Every structure is written in C-alpha cells, then in structure tokens.
Amino acid sequence: MGSNNIQYKELFSFSLEQLFYKNNYCKDYSLEPKLDIQYVPTVECNDTMNRLDLIFRKTDQKAGFTILARIMGENLSGDPLLRFSYGNHEKLAFWLVLNNPEVLNFNNLPAKFSKDDFFCFNNQVADPAALRSSLHMTVDPIGVVGINDISKISSQTYRFHHSSEVAENTSKVKHMLTGIEITPKYITNASGESDLIFDMSLLPSGKCKLLINNIQRDEFYYMGLSVPNTPLLGVIEFSLSRSLNSNYRIAEPDYSLTAQRPYY
User: 99, 108 in Cβ contact below 8 A?
Assistant: First the structure.
C-alpha cells in the first residue's frame, strides 16, 4: 500500500515587539507567556488558509505566529514550490485583539484613539534596505510613531459628507489591494453640499479610498462582515502578491519559497 507524503514549509513568521519588556515580547513568565495582544484570523483569512492548505501556528514566546504552507515539487533551482497557487490580490489578515488594555498606557502610542480608528499594519512596505530577517510593517522603520499607522475604520455602511454637490457617476470607493470599485448607493445633494452612502458588503475587507472626480477625498479600512465582539487594537495584513519588493514578498513569481523566509 502506497504512502502519501505531505510536506509543509515555513511561509513567513511574525512577532510584535514591545521594547520596554526585558525580552522584547511580554512580561516575565515561568511556564507560559501571557500576551497583551492576541492574533485572530479574520473569516476571510481562515477561508484562504483552508483553500491554500496553510497552517497557523502560534509562537507565544515571541508574541507572534508562523504560517506553514504545503509544498509539492521543486523549481530548477531546487527551491520548494507551493502546492496551491493564488492571485496577487489575495492576503492573510489577523485582528489584533487587546487582552491587556493597559498596553495603551505603557507603550509609546497616541494617548487617545477615536472610536472610529485603529492600527493598520501591512507588508506592502517600500524599504529595500530592510533585512529579510527583520522586516518592519510600520510606516517608520523604528516602529509605531504618532498616528502614522492609524486608519479610520468603516462598517458595512460607509458615509461621507462632502462640502460640494456630487454629480452622478463622479464618485466611487476603490479597494486598494484588489482594485475593485463600487459606486454610491445613495447621493443626496442639498444646499451646495452632498452626502454619500456606500454599501461596502460588495467588497472584501481592507484599505479603501474614496474618489470624487478622480481626486482622493478619504481613506479608511473596511472591517468586513464578520468582526469579533472584542476590543480591537487593529489589524495586520500580509499581501501574498509576488510583485512586492523582493525582501518583503512571501513567495516568488513561480510560487517557490527561497531558503530565507521573511520575518516581519
């Protein structure tokens, strides 16, 4: 009877550093670490991981996780190939669930957040000098600085008030990763101003921008249809695009995995 040999390799790893801790990751512990922040895959992320045969493995000792991918075969250079392919527009996203609200006080973070804001980190970073073994996902290489990484958030219904009237077919919301565009469900013009309402349920979660007459008027993060009922600090997104800068991309254009895996 034949055997079925299924192999997995590291796709990428992630850690969240808090430099005021002695070990850079969490409070001192004797048995198991107690993390300030928990990582929860979004519903879309779970669907993608199931389809691509990816495994999510927590690494609490480094306040992070590793994603493993099923491989099959090699390219001409001897690098392993992913078993399942995907589109450049796909991503893996994880909610940052706040286990310890005090983290906002002893980190060097903005003192106050709006209820409509949260942190948004991703690997679409243009920093060719960043080492593949230490890839920052913040706008500033040194980490979170001011409001650089804070994004406005939106639920299924996105509303925008414009100081001028908006004509039909001159406004749209564009999903920044996929390029998908939607037009307003309602436009109300009155007294020289306008109110726009969009049904965001037609889009995947992710960063979006509002364009009026092809000029960007707003930018926000659409939360998607399934949001955990827990305190959220933000989201981290890992684009699977093979066109990212070579140090930041997860897989090569031929879906192969180089020996040095990205560590964000």
Answer: no
**Residue 50 token pair:** 């199931």
Q: Is the entire prediction scored with pTM above 0.90?
A: yes
What's the pLDDT tens digit per position in 21-45? 889 888 888 888 999 999 999 999 9
The C-alpha atoms of residue 67 and residue 54 are separated, in whole angstroms, by: 7
Q: Could you give the C-alpha distances from 78 to 7, 75, 245, 257, 258, in angstroms and in order?
A: 15, 5, 22, 10, 9
What's the rounded Cα separation, in Å, for the pair 98 and 110? 16
CB-based contacts of 223: which residues, under 8 Å, 6+ apart? 153, 154, 155, 205
CA distance 15 to 213: 41
Q: Give dist(CA 136, CA 142) in Å, integer.
A: 8
Structure tokens at 139: 């706008």
Q: Identify whether the C-beta of residue 250 lies closer than 8 Å to the C-beta of residue 11.
A: yes
What is the reported pLDDT for 145? 85
How far apart CA 151 and CA 106 sit, in angstroms, is 21
Output the CA torsion 109→115→121→124 (10° steps): -130
DSSP string, 149-200: TEEEEE-SEEEEEESS---TTSEEEEETTT--EE--SEEEEETTEEEEEEEG
Residue 148 and residue 194: Cα distance in Å, rounded?
A: 29
By CB atoms closer than 10 A (0-12, 13-18, 19+), residue 88 is middle
**Residue 175 CB-density burial (10 A; 0-12 exposed, 13-18 middle, 19+ buried):** buried
DSSP 8-state symbol, 7: E
| 163-175 average pLDDT score | 97
